[in-house]
Amino acid sequence: FKLTTVEEFEAATARLLETGAKVGADAWQFRVKNQTPHCKFGEEGVCCRICTMGPCRITKKAPRGICGCDVHGIVGRNYLKFTAGGSATHSDHGREICHTLYESAADGCYKVKDPDKLIRIAKEWGIETEGKDIYDLAHEVAETGLMEYGKPFGTQRFLKRAPESQQELWEKNELAPRAIDREVSCSLHMSHMGCSSKPEALVKQAIRAGLSDGWGGSMMGTEFSDVLFGTPKPIETEANLGVMVEDNVNIVVHGHDPSLSEMICEFADDPEMIAYAKEQGAKGITVSGVCCTSNEVAMRRGIPMAGNFLQQENVVLTGACEAIVVDVQCIFPALGPLSKCFHTKFITTSPIAQMPDSEFIRFDAHTAGEKAKLIVRTAIENFKNRKPELVHIPQLKQKATVGYSTEAIVKALDGVTNSQVDELGTTKPLLECITSGVLRGAVAMVGCNNPRVRPDLAHIELMKKLVANDIIIIASGCSAQAAAKAGLMDKRAKDVCGAGLKRVCELADIPPVLHMGSCVDISRMLVLAATLAKDAGLHISQLPVVGCAPEWMSEKAVSIGNYVIGSGIDTFLGVDPYACGSSEMVEILTNGTKEWVEAAFTVEKDIEKLGDAMIAKIEEKRAALGI
Ligand code: NFS
Ligand code: SF4
Predict the structure, then answer these.
(1) Closest-lying ligand 2 atom to the alpha carbon of residue 48
(2) Which of 158, 194, 286, 403 has its CA 20 to 30 A from that of 376?
(3) Alpha carbons 249 and 272: distance in angstroms, whole number
(4) Would the CB of 49 count as within 6 Å of ligand 2?
(5) What is the mean pLDDT of residues 84-99?
(6) C-beta of residue 607 within 8 angstroms of C-beta of residue 529
(7) Is 143:102 a contact under the CB 8 Å cutoff?
(8) CB-ligand 1 contact for 330 (6 Å cutoff)
């Protein structure tokens, strides 16, 4: 067993770009060159274009915009708008899932696969469950969830999952998120021309908007996806482009909403469809995924992961992709023109993400079955249009065990229990590993990859360093896929760990990097941290746990960053959130927020230093606890 290196990824990509050159395809590697150097004002966040007296940009000579706003106000407003974009996006995804749950029916396209979880949430929310038909209950819970988006009074229901101390902090500092849509609206209101220009106020609202995502929209997205499609449990799969099969019809699902990808997987498995594929000259059908929708179906069905964010073009460049089917978010508009260089069908399905040069097959809960069938059929019929001379699938893949929901982690760690005091089915065994020092702590590795950082390298190198130091990793999003591609989710990766983590991996039969799902599933990490803190009688901020997004790029990632620090977890970034132009904003984000939420950001572009800083922070927290 050997980990795959980033050099090997890059060699595979280089080979694919040769194919691209033959057909005149563009690629992000070339566009990056055209965009470099980037605009300095933009990078520092000091450009304001929120009214047409501007655009104004702050320089030494021009320290204020036309309205008189200083650099701190401009950077702060930009930061808040960025966060609001991310919060809106995750939360709207969560809302779609609420609607899917609302549409579930015994004889419909969508069923309730985890009724126990539904009942648990209903009880948590004070909804009567006794003697109720499960679908009546699903409708009631879904409607209650939908109300979380616009209710006029009160704060998010799921906040009660946090330790009391956390809830008190939120209340005291006016950070407890109210209705989700209100927090997004309020953020846009505050950052309108002539409203807030005080950085403290803008950052506070960014945290509140972030929290409405993490403990609101994203958490509902995760929980109701589990209710509909099943709560993930450990399952075997594979990752990297080598999961595509040359002789098969290759359908790639890309985006975020499992409502689409689940249905595609369902029909691609249909014997009738497989027979049709054979009729058309293929040996079968392979569904693989890109980005978070890939994480969703990998976690629940073991569907292989073709790659993460910056690998989306590679999938088409294999020349063996019959259809790339997308729903929402993180989809390169480049896929339109790129697909035209090949036989690939680029199929968009959501009114939220419409793109030129795509075929739009509108997907909704009522017609999901029909539409999924149509999409699978379209892909099959496209198999004969392949240009064999363009087909090249890099034979690069690694095995991965995925599916570590919070529930699954708790269950797996029962395996490390041998003393009497450990209670099965709780986080106590994990806490004991941490207290005894067998594990030094945990890092939540999340987020995208980004051409600003050599793609995947920061994720993989940091994970290797952390596991060697007996720090267990929970991962999600494109970070998780980087780990899987490298082989760090193979149980044999225990051999690159320190002795303590290796022992835990053996006893619990887990890989050292645990795949917790998509980016909305970072809500699972919140629940895990909250449970650990409650079981240990500590504040979340006291746990030797940190968050890290070394290659992040999207607005969603900033929303996540805000709710992770907002939940008391120090967060380490490898990319600056366009805030470095304001000394006051830098001070607040890296220090000032501690006063409200007991956590802050660290931004460090040097990977070695970033890793060292995380380890130091974990050791500092241990020392404070006297462990
Ligand atoms: Ni997260 Fe998932 Fe990936 Fe980044 Fe995009 S796919 S929601 S935003 S790029 S990790
Ligand atoms: Fe310029 Fe102020 Fe208008 Fe921004 S709000 S563009 S700083 S005048």
Answers:
(1) 4
(2) 403
(3) 14
(4) yes
(5) 98
(6) no
(7) yes
(8) yes
Q: pTM of the full predicted structure? A: 0.97
Check: CB of residue 163 under 8 Å from CB of residue 533: yes
| Measured torsion, CA atoms of residues 475, 477, 482, 485, in degrees rounded to the nearest 10 | 100
Helices (H), 241-286: 258-268, 271-279
Site to substitute for ligand 2 among 53, 70, 202, most atoms within 8 A of C-beta? 53
pLDDT tens-place string over residues 159-216: 999 999 999 999 999 999 999 999 999 999 999 999 999 999 999 999 999 999 999 9
Cβ–ligand 2 distance for 69 under 6 Å, the answer: yes
Average pLDDT of span 75-80:
98
Residue of minimum CA distance from atom 6 in ligand 1: 291
* The residue to which tokens 């539904």 are assigned: 118
* 430-468 pLDDT, tens digit each: 999 999 999 999 999 999 999 999 999 999 999 999 999
Tokens 């993930």 found at: 232
Between the CA of residue 397 and those of 4, 129, 237, 438, 485, what are the distances in Å? Answer: 8, 46, 10, 31, 6
User: Checking DSSP bridges between strand 56-57 and strand 47-48, what pairing results, if any?
Assistant: antiparallel
Q: Rounded distance, CA 256 to CA 241, Å?
A: 19
Whether 621 and 598 have beta carbons less than 8 Å apart is answered as no
Residue 558 has pLDDT above 70, yes or no: yes
CB-CB contact of 355 with 34 (8 Å): no
> Which domains can be identified in the chain, with CATH numbers?
66-229 (1.20.1270.30), 241-390 (3.40.50.2030), 405-625 (3.40.50.2030)
Q: Which atom of ligand 2 is nearest to the CA of 194?
A: 5
Q: How far is the CA of 70 from the centre of ligand 2 (A)?
A: 10
Q: Is the Cβ atom of 46 under 6 angstroms away from ligand 1?
A: no
What secondary structure does DSSP assign to 442-482, as a single string?
EEEE-----TTS-TTHHHHHHHHHHHHTTEEEEEEHHHHHH
Ligand 1 atom index nearest CA of 552: 4
The DSSP annotation for 601-619 comes to EEE---HHHHHHHHHHHHH
ipTM for the assembly: 0.95
Each residue of 39-64: pLDDT tens digit?
Answer: 999 999 999 999 999 999 999 999 99
* Ligand 2 atom at shortest distance from the alpha carbon of 74: 7
For ligand 1, pick from 330, 481, 573 the residue to mutate: most ligand atoms within 8 Å of CB: 330
Confidence band, pLDDT 50/70/90 cuts, at residue 420: low
